[in-house]
Write a structure and sequence with these properties.
Helix content is about 40%, strand content about 20%. With about 200 residues, the protein is an alpha/beta fold. It has a single domain, classed as Decaprenyl diphosphate synthase-like (Undecaprenyl pyrophosphate synthetase, 3-Layer(aba) Sandwich), CATH 3.40.1180. Helix 1 runs parallel beside helix 7. The chain starts with a helix and ends in a 7-residue tail after the last helix.
Amino acid sequence: MIHWLYERRLRSQLQRLPHHICFMITEQDMLDAPEKILDVTSWCLNLGITLLTFHVNSTDSENIRKFLPYIKKIASVAKLRLHDEYGTEVKGEGVVVDVAIGKSGREEIAQCIKQMANDGIDPKVVDEHLIESYLAFRYSPDLVIKTGGYHLTDFLIWQSVYSELYFSDINWRFFRKIDLLRALRDYQSRERRFGI
């Protein structure tokens, strides 16, 4: 009962929500609590978040097969865009939820440069807007949440340069709606400067 009251109090304090949240999740997180990704998605949707991204830092095919069915359940509540080594699969309707498995920001930027070279782009015209037009993930999250520690991956390394970062000492398997609301409360208390 106390948790319910505290959750309600936290929710009432939220006046400004991020448009786009990105969660950084490890392979072990997904193995320990694969069902949590659907829970977190539902919480965010119910709060009115309009774009979600999950990055699962995993390249082990056997482990990915273990938690992939749980990720695919997101399509029952949102439009899932699943990005993995085989390409992009889209299922469901509604708010877009991108799940990127084993994707690297460094590789994404290197691929942009290669593609620009293949397209014969004159180096003199290359600017940040042109680079952004070549990125696979063409959005910048307002808030990046990392559970269970302080080590981010290089996913969205270009796109998240002005994102607000929130590190929760709560492990993914124990991450609750209250913890999400705390992250959102912290986000709204920050003055976003976008590098200025």
